[in-house]
């Protein structure tokens, strides 16, 4: 077995570079103007504004896989609690289906019925719900 003889400082620099690369990849690079235009064309700006107003002016969640789209209301703290409980009780895929049902305003059913499309939605829903995290520290 070959022993790693690299100094620890060098290893730290390697991991720091990897973390920086991953952070850069995580930044949104897609121009969302075409996607927004597709949702406006499909649901209408007036309806999107109405839904947004009904939910306290918070941003709606718009999902698109191929030509199928769905609009979800913004999740609340209670929704997040229910989602976390569902993960522990039923597993991730059932929890995602559960939360989608709770948040669903309007959209195409293939996003739920088609396995490949549901996988794409599954990953995004999990990202959305876990993506907003507060910074904290212990003192």
Explain how this protein is built.
The protein is mostly helical and 139 residues long. The chain has helices at 8-26, 33-43, 45-54, 77-90, 92-103, 110-113, 115-131; strands at 61-65, 68-72, 104-107. A three-stranded antiparallel beta sheet has the order 1-2-3. It is globular, with a radius of gyration of 20 Å. The termini are far apart.
Q: Given the structure, what is the number of helices?
A: 7
Strand content: 5-15%
- Spatial arrangement of strands, main beta sheet: 1-2-3
Tally of strands: 3
SSE blueprint and pairings:
Layout: H1 8-26, H2 33-43, H3 45-54, E1 61-65, E2 68-72, H4 77-90, H5 92-103, E3 104-107, H6 110-113, H7 115-131
Antiparallel strand pairs: 1-2, 2-3
Helix pairs in contact: 2-3, 4-5
Can you tag this structure with a few keywords?
139 residues, single chain
Give a quick precis of the structure.
With 139 residues, the chain is mostly helical. It has helices at 8-26, 33-43, 45-54, 77-90, 92-103, 110-113, 115-131, and strands at 61-65, 68-72, 104-107. It has a 3-stranded antiparallel β-sheet with strand order 1-2-3.
């Amino acid at each position: 077995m070959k022993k790693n003889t690299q100094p620890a400082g060098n290893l730290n620099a390697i991991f720091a570079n990897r973390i920086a690369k991953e952070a850069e990849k995580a930044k949104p690079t897609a121009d969302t103007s075409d996607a927004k235009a597709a949702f406006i064309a499909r649901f209408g700006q007036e309806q999107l504004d109405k839904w947004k107003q009904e939910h306290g002016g918070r941003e709606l969640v718009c999902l698109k896989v191929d030509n199928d789209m769905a609009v979800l209301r913004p999740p609340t703290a209670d929704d997040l609690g229910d989602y976390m409980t569902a993960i522990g009780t039923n597993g991730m895929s059932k929890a995602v289906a559960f939360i989608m049902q709770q948040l669903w305003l309007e959209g195409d059913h293939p996003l739920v019925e088609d396995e490949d499309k549901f996988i794409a939605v599954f990953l995004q829903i999990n990202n959305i719900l876990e993506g907003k995290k507060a910074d904290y520290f212990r003192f």
